[in-house]
Amino acid sequence: MSSQRPRGLPHVDAMTPPVLALAGPVTREEVAGLCDDVRALLEGTGTGVVVCDVGGLGPPGLAAVDLLARLQLTARRAGGRIRLRDPDPALAALLDLVGLRFELEGQLEQREPALHVQEAVEPGDPPL
Q: Does 27 or 74 have the greater pLDDT score?
């Protein structure tokens, strides 16, 4: 028994992840509310990702690291993850320094260079 494929293109439901804008220095009391917001966005949209716009977060520091770590933990517990948009290079370096890895929006995938590839050839080099 065979079934016939429907004509035309398959229906694709493109879902864009919701965006949570983080502005100004966030106080310790606001962290729980932001975690609730991440949880609600993940459960309400079903995308599995919440984009956190951290461009207005202010100068990077341990408070920002703590906030992002708690938001990521909340997202993981809800079955999703967060993605950072517009991070300050110093914030990205600080997150890397403390060992927290976040997906950055628009960031190309980091891969190792291919083996046995020469970038430049010097005259007289033997062929491989």
A: 74
